[in-house]
Structure formats: structure tokens, C-alpha cells
Design goal:
Length: 322
């Protein structure tokens, strides 16, 4: 049966204005923070830092859901590079930001058939376990080393996202035995094309091995796994790009608490950072869910690449003391 498009979809003009506002917040707020705020004394009042965090995270929520990267992969390098917080607190807050964005978006994504539970279950199990191991390792490493490695990792993600030829509708002739046995397939309504799209996946075993390695890296850097979930689901396993982005948010919702508890147990959660970040990211994610249906994923991807490039360079320079 044909799905009726939601009456809450934004017009192209509204989408353009929302994305422009989000880009402005993401660019102006961190630069203002890096400059030290007021001219008198070169320091900012303490209450301005939570306000800036709220604005930045609100913008992150808008762009992160359509890109399928979660909030952590953008939050950690931007806040670590431009805000005066210790990296351990930023990484701990990064998990909570990624979790909040995913939890806010996942119910709507599942109602729209843009997130599939069967596709998310096995990756979520593997990432949960490996992410806890990565979080333990990350807390034992020196902050300067993690900051430098984080910068290199972010630049590597930029290169991966730039060179990868993403396919909105990959061609999968037959599902592999694992996918067929687990009935990993589905149908979603593509508002841009005005029709239902059937999909299935293959190379499931290779994808599951990849998700294990993704979890370790996500735990070490506090990035969440969204930055690699989408390429793995889309390019390796053959899920449509929108389903990959939506399912990535569902995976983040199920996996992030495992690593977050490691940081909570070690006292690496600071309410001054976590609370405004969570409120901002959840409000932005509610808008991002609607944008996913009508905005071209390639447009969001280019924006994310640009933001990650700046944040990666900043994290690398901060890590090596420049």
C-alpha cells in the first residue's frame, strides 16, 4: 500500500533556511569560544559556555541525523578543539550526546521504515561489547596522545567519506545466507521518488567483523559509531543510503549506553557539559528526522565533511601543542 507523505515535511525553502542556520551556529559559536569571549581579560563568564554548547549541539542535531553520523563524531572534535574542557569529560559527554540524538530520532525513523530493527540487532551486539573494551583503553591513555590520535582519526574519516562513492540505492541481486535466514530486508517509502523502495543486503559476515573493529575505535575516542555505520551498511552490505542513515541512529541508541557507563563509573561526566549538550542535540534531532525525508543526503554529507576537516585539523594541532 502506498504511504501517504507526512504533512509535516518541510518545503525546500524551509530546509535551506534550517541548514543555513545550523551551519552558521556550527561555524560562529566555536570560533567565538576559541577567541575567549569578552575583550576584558580574555575570559568568558561561566554561564556562556553552557549556552554556546546548547547552540552548537542544537545545530549538530539538525545535520547529524540526515547524515547518519550521530552527534558524537562531530561533538567530540569540535568541543575538544574549541572549548576549554578536559578531553576525558568531552569524550564522556560525546557518548551521551550521541545517545540523546539517536534516542530522539529512532522512534520516528522506525515509524517511517527508515530504520530496521533486524538490520540493527547483530551490529548492536558486537559494537556494545567492543565499545566497552575501547572505552577502558581510552581512559588509560594520556590526553595529549588521544587528542593527537583523534585528530588523525578524524582526518582519516574525512578521507573515507570523501573518496567513498555512496550509492543511494545499491544493487543487491540476492541476499547472503545469513541475511536470508534472519530476514533482513524491507520496504520504505521514498518521498523524493514518490514510490516504495524494496531493499535487501549481502556480505553480512564481513559487515559484522567490521562492526567489531568500529566499536573499539568508537570507545577509545568517544565518537560513537555513526561515522562508520553508514559506509558499512551502505557500501559493504548494500542497504539503501537512507535506510543506512536511519538504522545507524537505531544502532547508536542501543550501543552507546555500554561505553557511557564506563565513563560514568570513572567520574568522567560533568553536568555542566552534558546537560546543555543533551538538550540541544535532542531538539535539533527532532528537526533532523524531518529533513532526512526531503533533503538530499549528499548535501548533508558535504557539510559534515567540511566540519570534520576543520575539527580534525584543530584537534591535531591542539594535541601536538600548536
Amino acid at each position: 500500500m502506498r504511504r501517504v507523505p507526512s504533512t509535516l515535511d518541510y518545503s525546500d525553502m524551509s530546509c535551506s533556511r534550517l541548514l543555513t542556520a545550523a551551519v552558521t551556529l556550527l561555524v560562529v559559536s566555536p570560533v567565538f569560544a576559541a577567541d575567549g569571549g569578552s575583550a576584558a581579560g580574555g575570559t568568558m563568564a561561566w554561564w556562556l559556555w553552557p549556552l554556546l554548547l546548547f547552540l552548537v549541539c542544537f545545530a549538530l542535531g539538525i545535520v547529524a541525523v540526515p547524515a547518519g553520523v550521530g552527534g558524537g563524531v562531530l561533538f567530540v572534535p569540535i568541543v575538544a578543539g574549541f572549548f576549554p574542557f578536559h578531553l576525558d569529560f568531552v569524550r564522556g559527554a560525546g557518548f551521551m550526546v550521541g545517545l540523546s540524538s539517536a534516542v530522539a530520532a529512532s522512534p520516528s525513523l522506525m515509524r517511517l521504515s527508515l530504520a530496521d530493527l533486524r538490520l540493527a540487532l547483530l551490529p548492536s551486539l558486537l559494537i556494545s561489547v567492543s565499545q566497552m573494551a575501547g572505552a577502558v583503553i581510552g581512559l588509560e591513555l594520556p590526553a595529549a596522545l588521544v587528542q593527537t590520535t583523534l585528530g588523525l582519526a578524524i582526518l582519516g574519516i574525512v578521507a573515507l567519506m570523501w573518496t567513498a562513492k555512496k550509492s543511494e540505492l545499491p544493487s543487491v541481486s540476492l541476499p547472503d545466507p545469513i541475511a536470508a535466514a534472519l530476514r533482513i530486508n524491507g520496504v520504505f517509502y521514498d518521498a523524493a521518488r514518490g514510490r516504495n523502495i524494496e531493499w535487501k543486503v549481502h556480505r553480512t559476515a564481513t559487515g559484522l567483523v567490521s562492526f567489531t573493529g568500529i566499536g573499539v575505535l568508537a570507545g577509545i575516542f568517544g565518537l560513537g559509531a555513526g561515522w562508520a555505520n553508514v559506509p558499512t551498511l551502505n557500501l559493504l552490505m548494500g542497504a539503501p543510503l537512507k535506510v543506512s542513515a536511519g538504522t545507524s541512529s537505531l544502532i547508536l541508541a542501543m550501543t552507546t549506553p555500554s561505553a557511557a557507563w564506563v565513563y560514568i563509573n570513572q567520574g568522567a561526566m560533568l553536568p555542566l557539559i552534558v546537560v546543555p549538550s543533551i538538550v540541544g542535540i535532542m531538539l535539533g534531532a527532532l528537526i533532523g528526522v524531518r529533513l532526512l525525508r526531503v533533503v538530499k543526503a549528499s548535501s548533508i554529507r558535504h557539510l559534515v565533511i567540511a566540519l570534520l576537516l576543520v575539527a580534525g585539523l584543530r584537534a591535531l594541532m591542539k594535541g601536538i601543542g600548536l
